[in-house]
Amino acid sequence: MRRRKLLQAGLVTGIGSGVKATGTGTSLLMRPMPRTGERLPAVGLGTWLTFDVPTADAPALARCQAVVDRFVADGGRVVDSSPMYGHAEAVLGEVLPRAASACFAMSKVWTPIIPYGPMQMRRSMALWRRTQMDVMLVHNLLAWQGHLNTLRQWQHEGLVRHVGVSTSHGRAHDEMREILGHDRIDVMQITYNPTDRSAEPLLDLASARGVAVIINRPFDGGDLLDRLAHVPLPPVAADLGCTSWATLVLKWELAHPAVTVAIPATTNTEHVAQNLAALRGPLPDLRERETIWRAMAPAVG
Q1: Alpha-carbon span 198 to 128, nearest angstrom
Q2: Is 222 left (phi over 0), alpha (psi -120 to 50) or beta?
Q3: Which residue among 10, 148, 201, 248 sits deepest, i.e. has the most Cβ atoms within 10 Å of its Cβ?
């Protein structure tokens, strides 16, 4: 079963200079959070759709536990969720305790009612079983001015370490540009993948402003990998240590110098392994990235 159906079921300093960023052997590709300098594995774990299962559904919960266990075992740390994702945060509270010390926790506030924001965020923290969040974002820029004021106060009080905003599906780029230009944020989460490169100017702006970039929908919700299933891997994949399109696509994305972490979602432990494999071995240089882009053309359109 392909990734899309499974979903429904259950700073590279050298790019352009010829110098490759590399995670070799037991080392992993790490990226710094600009505000704190904390280094994180550059592939994380999203939970949209995949972790939206009832906690009473034992088989589904076991699948989520297996995904988290494999994710951590392969070197992952960054886990992303939102109150918009149904049961996902409650599921994380069940499956994360064994990996709590390794988790870099990122969630969001998602309500048009600004005074309700703190209550929603406290509920998220309770579900995650945390007293501090590593990142809290204003989800899809909903009432972002008021929520950012709250988040900055929470940051001052030590309840959250990094604050920022998110958007997805190529939406609200003008508003995101305004925020990057005039507001102090630590993190921008945005959609970026080979089928949607519209965020590239914002990635560059975020990098110039010292803002971490988290990219969501790195596989276009799984549709890109479905289309690439009929496209042969280019020879450069072997040079980069890639045996799957998932690994190669992530390396193509991570080769953009502004990207801090990509957060693919999955319900399959084999796919976790393919995703985390992007942390090892060289990333494509500028020429190789263009070669990969041309190879993806039949699926990208």
Answers
A1: 33
A2: left
A3: 248
